[in-house]
Amino acid sequence: MEALVGGLTEFFKGWLSPEIIIFIVSLLPILELRGGLIAAALLGVDWAIAFPICVIGNVLPIPIILLFIRKIFDFIKKTNFLWLRKLVIKIDEKAQKKTKNMNTASLWGLFLFVGIPLPGTGAWTGSLVANILNIKPLKAFIIIILGVITAGIIMSTLTYLIPSFFF
Of 18, 72, 111, 122, which residue is 20 to 30 A from 63 by alpha carbon distance? Predict the structure, then answer.
């Protein structure tokens, strides 16, 4: 992840402000807030400025995903774009597998899924999982925001606090 974030940061560095760069990185699936905070640390952006930018960037696409992802996936599965159809099926199957690990306490499961910053977890996938679990969009949105903030605290510690002890 660091290599991808580093590459994006270097690519945008000459013509966008550091704040816009971390916002864009936080919007992207896979990288999300975790990548945004890494980019912020690489760019030397103060944590107090970076944290809210990354949270907002990560949370912004979530209502759209919660409300429309099923319809979008169903539409894509019916298209003639074979590569896109295969990609959507793969994403859907991966989310289904992750959903099986969640028990009846699905709200706590969703919170932990989004809040613990591991590869393949985060707000984007959490939104898809919430959709599969049929969690009402407003409840899911609140739980996902809390998870994003929790992941942000963990990642802030890893990117801002711990390195300062060693360097």
Answer: 18
